[in-house]
Every structure is written in C-alpha cells, then in structure tokens.
Design a protein that fits this description.
- Helix content is about 70%, strand content about 10%.
- By secondary structure, it is mainly α.
- Strands 1-2 form a two-stranded antiparallel ribbon.
- The chain is flat and about 50 Å long.
C-alpha cells in the first residue's frame, strides 16, 4: 500500500492508536471486533514497512519471507473474512444480514483459495515504480494478485 518504509511505519502507528482507542470504547464483542480493524491493519502495515527495510538491509534479508507472508495473509486471507464477518455481526436488518452472509461465504472461498496459493506456490516481491509488487507463482494464471 505505502510507497516507502516510513509511510508504512507512520500508518502503522496512527492505525494502532486509532484502533486501541476504538477498542477501548467498544461495548460489545461485535463492536470490539469491528474496532480491531485498524489494529490488524497496523500489523499489516508494520510487516510491509519491515519488508521495505529488509529489501535494503542485508541483516534483515533472512526475515523477508516472514514479512511477505504476514502481509499477504492479512491481504488475502484475513480481510476477505474479517470485514464481512464483523459487519454482519453488527447488522440488525435481516435483509442486509443475508447479503452480508453471502459476502462472508464468498470471502471464505477467496481466503481458502488464496491460502492454498500461499501454501503451495512461491511468492516473490519486486520493487516497481515506488511500490511493492507481490508475485505469486501460480502456473497458468496471471501473476498479479496484489
């Protein structure tokens, strides 16, 4: 998402502060799970910031796979489930809740497929035009997921 390590770290700090404040104000479990979104996103941004640093610092190079997979697990596995689940838990309207259940089911399918790809295919990251390009080597498919 961010264009350099400093932006990722800055976003991580701001998101963790906002998320912590939101969690402290939550009165129910569904509100707390929804309020946790910024905290989870801050972890994802921290991983991306560390990935930027590890691409330039040989001492952190061995950590690159951890940072890559942390970022991608959030992007491709966690978010497609977490977002519709938390919104569904908050929704009171039956009609809208049915739509959210469909989105949650779709998110689960996406997460399972993406999780499978992350487990069984190699991933590499390339810096391109001031952003990170994540390349999942799925045979016969387009390479651009993120």
């Amino acid at each position: 998402m961010c264009f350099w390590a400093g932006a990722s770290f800055g976003a991580s700090v701001v998101l963790s502060i906002i998320g912590t404040a939101a969690i402290m104000k939550a009165r129910t479990i569904p509100q707390g799970l929804f309020a946790g979104i910024p905290v989870l996103f801050s972890i994802q941004q921290l991983a991306e910031g560390m990935l930027w640093l590890s691409s330039k610092n040989l001492g952190l190079e061995s950590w690159q796979p951890f940072f890559i997979y942390t970022f991608l697990v959030f992007a491709l596995v966690v978010w497609p489930i977490w977002l519709p689940l938390t919104i569904c838990m908050l929704e009171k309207d039956t009609r809208r809740k049915k739509i959210l259940w469909f989105l949650l089911f779709t998110g689960i399918l996406v997460s399972v497929g993406a999780g499978f790809a992350l487990l069984f295919y190699s991933v590499r990251v390339v810096q391109f035009d001031r952003h990170l390009h994540y390349d999942i080597n799925i045979p016969g498919e387009t390479k651009d997921l993120i």
